[in-house]
Amino acid sequence: MPPPRKKQPASARRTVRKKNEWSEADEKSYQDFLNNSGIKELAMRLRVLEAQGEALGMAPGHRDLLKCPKCGLFENALFNGQLITTRSIDSEEDTGLRFDKLTDGTYLCPGCGARVVEPEYIPPPDLFGPVKRRKRS
Ligand SMILES: [Zn+2]
Questions:
Q1: pLDDT, tens digit, for every residue of 83-125?
Q2: What does the alpha-carbon distance between residue 39 and residue 19 come to, in Å, rounded to a whole number?
Q3: Are residues 67 and 34 in the same domain?
Q4: Is residue 68 within 8 Å of residue 116, measured between CB atoms?
Q5: How far does residue 90's CA lie from ligand 1's centre (Å)?
Q6: Who surrounds ion ligand 1 at CB < 5 A?
Q7: Does one domain contain both 86 and 103?
Q8: How far apart are CA 29 and CA 23, in angstroms?
Q9: Taking the model in full, what pTM does it have?
């Protein structure tokens, strides 16, 4: 038999925070985690690896794939992560052409010279969605 639950002292009840409130203690804990966990160094190493992967022809991990609205040339990523450009969704044949970055978010189509704006990132839908409770009958 479990021991009886003790009632929380009044002093503890007064310190109960509102849900989702970010306290100074939370911030201190978060900063402590950032500074001592090694996660900043890990993120920097991941950026270097991502840049090396792109230099080797891998699909970019920091932006969506591009498609030219004028001529239809688009980037695609093969199963192994290799970046290609093609004109047909059914083809894995690489044209060998690559979009040139002009400014942040704007690229030059190598097929026709049109300016291509990077598509807005749309996060994937939440697979599980909000928890729905069923009414018991
Ligand atoms: Zn084009």
A1: 999 999 888 899 999 999 999 889 999 999 999 999 887 777 7
A2: 27
A3: no
A4: yes
A5: 19
A6: 68, 70-71, 73, 109, 111-112, 114
A7: yes
A8: 10
A9: 0.60
